């Protein structure tokens, strides 16, 4: 499962925080990792200390077939962690590339075959628009971060159908890497009920690791650092290290 | 400011929770309110106790010019609160309606002129795709719920430019109704710093009211009820009542 798209149409479920910190923890374990920021918000880009991609560079250039992967990727301040940054030019892609239908997904899929890294992790935007959809069509695995709340449960009902549709239409090899509980506060009854429901429905596809609510995870991006390079002993850092370990064991 | 779009491209900032509860509180004060669910996730629809819109009904039908406003709107269990529900058919709109460019926004704007309600409140999806963009192009006012975190601050930098662009291209009359701090926990330093920064930058455009983190707000949708009809004494309910009062005073 070399290329993993971190995705959930629901907003604010910790996609970016997960993509960035899983990538950083894998790199810290000695793996070479490429983080692709496919979200015009560019939150992942700033979280690894990079400036926004100038026009003609970064993910927009990669998708427009103007650049190959090696040209679009930039080193980050962190060893073995490279990134393809997002920038303002990527916003146009959300309204629909000129190149619609199969052409689009094939571009990304072909570029990804050039990757020489151990892991490729893609941060995707919320909502099911062109960008998120095409990342799912191009990836090997899908990691779904979610909060334990009612709307997440509702969203999962459609989720299986959506995954089946993408597999059938574009990407038969797409596998679910796992569901990850984020911003998890098991002290509330709602969170515990939803968590138990997820375990019953998804079994081992629900990661054992869950990410606790920890303000250090929200502060780290303002310093341009993944959390392990900002406060490595905090509960958020330890949780993402545990996730990286579980991910490597389970998602080959 | 009759039609207000509740919008923020950032995910999970409390757009739906705000659209639903502001609408419900205004209706409880005796106003007639129409809530339009323009998000394929249909979270607002379930939050007011309605089933998902069947194909050929609801917001998708409204946008496709297949239905006028009276036909698309349905009563909710709550007095004076009507809603145009979202359903699976709305997902296609996120990938771009057949009718692109000006035709699209004009459809929604024209339908909205048929509204006989005191207030029309539109819940929009995250990400800046066709649906969110066109709701902004059709509305009179824009209410932006946001969390006091680093990505929100980053997002606001582009925000003024985006607003100007929409005004110039489609909707010169669009005004900012206000910024609303949601899930606000003033005990964390990050939240206080961002909150003070917002006040300095936006002055009275930052609502005095802020919505505290309150699990009752996350539980209410699972009962198909706005929070004032679920637990009217809780901190979340009282905060949205205060917001409704401030909104009516300031956003005429
Ligand atoms: N475990 C956590 N504890 C505390 N804060 C967190 C945690 N995870 C994420 N956050 C913060 O919550 C906010 C939302 O998280 P994030 O941006 O990663 O979600 P997202 O799913 O990528 O959002 P979007 O849908 O907009 O892309 C951010 O400010 C982030 O820093
Ligand atoms: N003040 C609050 N206290 C506790 N939970 C809240 C609060 N406001 C919203 N929530 C919960 O947080 C989650 C995200 O809120 P909501 O769905 O309203 O955000 P949104 O901006 O509409 O998300 P999206 O970007 O996916 O449309 C929901 O489960 C909601 O019930
Ligand atoms: Mg994100
Ligand atoms: Mg919403």
TrEMBL record, chains A, B:
InterPro entries cross-referenced by the UniProt entry: AAA_dom, DNA_Partitioning_ATPase, P-loop_NTPase
Cited Gene3D superfamilies: P-loop containing nucleotide triphosphate hydrolases
Residue ranges of domain AAA in the record: 1-175
Record-linked CDD domains: ParAB_family
Source domain of life: Bacteria
PANTHER family reported for this sequence: P-LOOP CONTAINING NUCLEOSIDE TRIPHOSPHATE HYDROLASE, PARA FAMILY PROTEIN CT_582
Family assignment from sequence similarity: To B.subtilis soj.
Full protein name: ParA family protein
Origin species: Candidatus Amphirhobacter heronislandensis
Lineage: Bacteria, Pseudomonadati, Pseudomonadota, Gammaproteobacteria, Candidatus Tethybacterales
């Amino acid at each position: 499962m070399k290329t993993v798209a971190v995705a959930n149409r629901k907003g604010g479920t910790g996609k970016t925080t997960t993509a960035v910190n899983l990538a950083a923890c894998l790199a810290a374990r000695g793996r070479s990792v490429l983080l692709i920021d496919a979200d015009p918000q560019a939150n992942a880009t700033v979280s690894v200390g990079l400036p926004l991609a100038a026009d003609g560079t970064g993910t927009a250039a990669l998708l427009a077939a103007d650049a190959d992967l090696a040209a679009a990727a930039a080193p980050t301040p962190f060893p073995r962690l490279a990134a393809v940054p997002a920038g303002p030019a990527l916003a146009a892609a959300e309204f629909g590339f000129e190149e619609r239908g199969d052409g689009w997904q094939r571009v990304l899929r072909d570029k990804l075959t050039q990757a020489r890294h151990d892991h490729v992790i893609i941060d995707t935007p919320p909502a099911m628009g062109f960008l998120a959809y095409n990342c799912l069509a191009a990836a090997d695995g899908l990691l779904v971060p979610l909060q334990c709340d009612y709307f997440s449960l509702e969203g999962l009902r459609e989720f299986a159908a959506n995954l089946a549709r993408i597999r059938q239409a574009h990407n038969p090899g797409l596998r679910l890497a796992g569901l990850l509980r984020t911003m998890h506060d098991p002290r509330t009854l709602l969170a515990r009920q939803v968590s138990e429901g997820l375990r019953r429905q998804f079994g081992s596809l629900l990661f054992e690791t869950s990410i606790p609510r920890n303000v250090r995870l929200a502060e780290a991006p303002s310093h341009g650092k993944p959390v392990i390079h900002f406060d490595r002993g905090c509960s958020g850092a330890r949780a993402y290290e545990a996730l990286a370990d579980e991910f490597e064991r389970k998602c080959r």
